[in-house]
Q: What sequence folds into this?
């Protein structure tokens, strides 16, 4: 079998008798040494560039494919507060940035529709700036640390 990709190489040295179809078995022609080294370098470069269509595993944990998904429970460094880049965020960073948002009570079909808006953090205070409330937002607006209770259609309850 021609070993055309790194994933086809064997961890048993005696099983690696060719590389890219070049004979590297005992008794090979001397010129094959140079050709085999060149082929190995080419295959390594293709793997590095991702042009060989070969998947590989890093450290037994990270499987790198054309559509890589991190498996297991990957960890990483937590960014400093206020970081606003395209780097991945850990759950520790997200929790620190957002705090506890609480939960929404189950609503019926006439519940208030909140559209648009932004999430902002100023110091240690998090807030949601709502762009608009739907047409049902005609009832009582309550801000409380308690869980929502009672009320009627159109009421809004902000738990802080």
A:
């Amino acid at each position: 079998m021609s070993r055309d990709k790194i994933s086809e190489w064997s961890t048993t040295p005696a099983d690696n008798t060719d590389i890219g179809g070049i004979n590297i078995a005992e008794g090979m022609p001397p010129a094959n040494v140079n050709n085999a080294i060149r082929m190995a370098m080419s295959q390594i470069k293709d793997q590095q560039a991702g042009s060989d269509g070969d998947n590989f595993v890093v450290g037994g944990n990270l499987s790198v494919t054309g559509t890589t998904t991190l498996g297991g429970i990957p960890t990483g460094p937590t960014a400093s507060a206020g970081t606003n880049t395209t780097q991945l965020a850990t759950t520790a960073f997200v929790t620190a940035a957002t705090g506890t948002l609480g939960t929404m009570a189950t609503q019926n079909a006439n519940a208030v529709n909140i559209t648009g808006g932004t999430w902002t953090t100023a110091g240690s205070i998090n807030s949601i700036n709502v762009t608009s409330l739907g047409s049902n937002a005609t009832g009582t607006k309550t801000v409380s640390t308690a869980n929502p209770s009672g009320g009627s259609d159109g009421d809004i309850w902000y738990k802080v």
